[in-house]
UniProtKB/TrEMBL annotation:
Domain Fumarylacetoacetase-like C-terminal: 141-269
Organism: Anaerobaca lacustris
Alphabetized PANTHER family for the sequence: 2-DEHYDRO-3-DEOXY-D-ARABINONATE DEHYDRATASE, FUMARYLACETOACETATE HYDROLASE DOMAIN-CONTAINING PROTEIN 2A-RELATED
Protein name: Fumarylacetoacetate hydrolase family protein
Gene Ontology biological process terms in this record: small molecule metabolic process
Keyword Transcription: no
Amino acid sequence: MVLTKHRCGDAERWALDGVLLSPEFDFKRFCGMRSAEIHPDLTGLQTTEPVAGQVLPPIEYDQEVWACGVTYSRSRDAREAETDVKNVYDLVYEAKRPELFFKAIGWRVKGTQAAIRIRRDSHWNVPEPELTLLVNSHAEILGFCAGNDVSSRNIEGENPLYLPQAKMYDGSCAIGPGICLTQADRMRDLPIELVIERNDEVIFKGDTNTSQIKRPFEELASYLTLEMSFPFGAFLMTGTGIVPEKEFSLSVGDKVTITIDTLVLENRVES
């Protein structure tokens, strides 16, 4: 089952598998429910109306997106190569405690077909395709969507303490196109693909698999909720295993396509 959010006239409506749910559906209430309660609740709210209108990011304006770093060996190696502050990323990769950081509030998040951005004060920028978990208020994983943690590698490389500036700015976070509702066990072997096009030509293509992630999804969710409550749930990006080579940087006009299992998130870079 896939939940999507749409603009229908002046209203925003949620849909399940291409059919609109009742306007009474409250996504934040949904994120406060136990996983065992979800399916009966959704079934009772289905209509016969097909979806129409613009696809929106599948998040409410006051929900939060958090992110994990250095969960794939490829990410660790790339971070070590880009900075003069050595060993810090290797230590995080091997440590018991994962790296967690705030990425975006819901109203800053972009959906599929919306524009993402690169910082004007950065010369080395990359997309980071990431399986993004939906975690409910009880720290249970309800499903996943495709995510893009757009990042400035040179700013973070100057000093790891600059990470908030490298990671958090207008247009740096995209998720979508919807939320695949499924159990965590079914996410452990999903293909992830990144394609970047410039002037209608593919200039980068890479792939990985969620089986390559070092930490279990439940562990990441448990650390996120260890000392913070999320009454409306939260989204958690789980790190990237695809990092373009040092010579590559995003440019305005590039088209970024991230595919995770059957979900396709597509964005174009704008200034």
